[in-house]
Amino acid sequence: MEAISYLGGRHNEYRPASIRKYYAALAVAVDEALATGAILPKQEAAYRDALKDRPRPRARSAESRTSAKKRKSVSMTEVRTVCRYLWTRGKPDDKLLVRLIKHGVFLGLRPSEYSDADRQGDLLVVRTRKTTNGRGLCAFRELDLVDIAPGEAASLDQLIVDFARASSGDLERLIDRLGARLRRACHHVGLAPFALYTTRHQAIANLKAAGKSAAEIAAVAGHKSLYTAGKAYAGRRSGWKAVPTAKATSAMLAKFEVQPTPQRPWSPKI
């Protein structure tokens, strides 16, 4: 019953086809539980009624959970324009969005990875997503923050705190909400909408434009393969010129047995 109740409360999370599939599986589980005696016959009606109480499906207009159809690059001017608008508007979600965009184009984290990010002095430790399907470099990766300014470190700390507070244990809903808010902001200032995941694409493009090696890019992005960034992400031509880029630690690079290229000084201009 706990599983049925939990799923019934996950409004705006799943497409109609997914809801039908999940509830069909739950119905089979109830049938099997009745057959084995795990559910008493007198309890059957309560379970059947619970199965009728389904969550609201995810809206067609909701942001896609994959990056396949999203913009893979965003210009510095576009970032400045939408961030200026959001910061001036000044609501908590607006300021959270600004920090996600600003740090996203530098760090290249997936939006969901901020939920587990932890700054430990000059290191940012991130739990890498997609490790369960064999595509991640390692369960946790480290980024070297030694070159960033104290103000940027403080802003990153605030982002991590605000992100955790805003998600309240419902990460997917937060990302959906922020994605919709970003789209509306882009429309308001006359820009073609870009997604939070676009900032990851842009960060990787910036690494390419800065001449970083495939191993360095993979280590920053958390890719196991040296070829993922080249095949699935924005190209070098989309990268911003002469901007600071994220830096993998020596421990991460050691997984590819390479040495880092020299890092540009940190001087954010967003």
What does this structure look like?
The chain is mostly helical and 270 residues long. It contains eleven helices and three strands. It has helices at 2-8, 16-36, 44-52, 76-89, 92-107, 150-167, 171-188, 196-209, 214-221, 228-232, 250-253; strands spanning 118-120, 123-127, 140-144. Strands 1-2-3 form a three-stranded antiparallel sheet, covered by helices on one side. α5 (92-107) runs parallel beside α8. The N and C termini lie far apart (50 Å). It comes from Devosia marina.
Summarize the SSE layout with pairings:
Blueprint: H1 2-8, H2 16-36, H3 44-52, H4 76-89, H5 92-107, E1 118-120, E2 123-127, E3 140-144, H6 150-167, H7 171-188, H8 196-209, H9 214-221, H10 228-232, H11 250-253
Antiparallel strand pairs: 1-2, 2-3
GO molecular function: DNA binding
Region (Disordered): 50-73
Organism: Devosia marina
Keywords:
11 helices, three-stranded antiparallel beta sheet, 3 strands, globular, 270 residues, DNA recombination, mainly alpha, Tyr recombinase domain-containing protein, DNA_brk_join_enz, hpI Integrase, Chain A, DNA binding, Integrase-like_cat_sf, 2 domains
Main beta sheet strand tally, sense and closure? 3 strands, antiparallel
- Estimate the helix proportion, in percent: 40-55%
Please tell me the overall pLDDT.
Answer: 87
Separate helix tally:
11
| CA distance, first residue to last residue | 50 Å
What quaternary form is this?
Answer: single chain
Helical/strand content category: mainly alpha
Q: What's the SSE pattern?
A: HHHHHEEEHHHHHH
Largest sheet strand order: 1-2-3
Low-confidence stretches: none
Q: According to CATH, what is the class of the largest domain?
A: Mainly Alpha
Strand content: under 5%
